[in-house]
Amino acid sequence: MSSVDARAICGWCEAKPGAVLEHPFGPEAAVFKVRGKMFALVAMDGPPDYVTLKADPEEGERLRAQHVFIREGYYMNKRHWITVDVAPETPAGLVGGLVDDSYDLVVAGLPKRVQSELSLGVASCLREHDRSVADEEDALFDVSTDGPGQHQPLDVATRDHH
């Protein structure tokens, strides 16, 4: 089981399409929003540090009953928000999934047009990643020697590095 820290949680939040980081409560509280709606608050004034996330009410209740490090949303609507203490026993996979769920719940409440724009942003990022991987693969092959579809691996030791 891999544990998690506040810095990793901030990275996960920042990676979400359309995510914006704000500090309305001071530098020790990172508030992440999508289109003006908060989906995470990462408080780094602990110990312990904690993250407050939006949750389905029934799921939040189940999570609080199952895990000692999950409680009602600190300073939030107790029915719709949970607070997860960032401690050694807090599994990274669980927290990552809760960040995803919180973001998805907030996005689901946005207008359909905005949801489409955000999902296009995800598709664009994936296409850019695929192009980047393809460019890296092409760099390993000499595509000019044998004609279309016949790639020969380059000898990396003799390859020019300009």
Features:
162 residues, alpha+beta, Aspartate Aminotransferase, domain 1, six-stranded antiparallel beta sheet, two-stranded antiparallel ribbon
Strand order of the largest sheet: 1-2-3-4-6-5
Tell me the major beta sheet: 6 strands, antiparallel
Helical content class: 25-40%
Overall pLDDT: 79
| CATH topological fold name of the largest domain | Aspartate Aminotransferase, domain 1
Taken from the alpha-carbon principal axes, the silhouette is: globular
- Taking the alpha carbons of the first and last residues, their distance comes to 44 Å
Q: What do these coordinates show?
A:
The protein is an alpha+beta fold. It folds into two domains: 6-109, Aspartate Aminotransferase, domain 1 (Alpha-Beta Complex); 111-140. Helix content is 40%, strand content 22%. It has helices at 6-14, 57-66, 92-108, 112-139; strands at 19-22, 29-34, 37-43, 49-54, 70-72, 81-86, 141-142, 152-153. The strands form two sheets. A six-stranded antiparallel beta sheet has the order 1-2-3-4-6-5, covered by helices on one side. It has a two-stranded antiparallel ribbon with strand order 7-8. Strand 2 (29-34) and strand 3 form a beta hairpin. The radius of gyration is 21 Å and the shape is globular. It starts with 5 loop residues before the first helix and ends in a 9-residue tail after the last strand. The model is unreliable at 132-162 (pLDDT under 50).
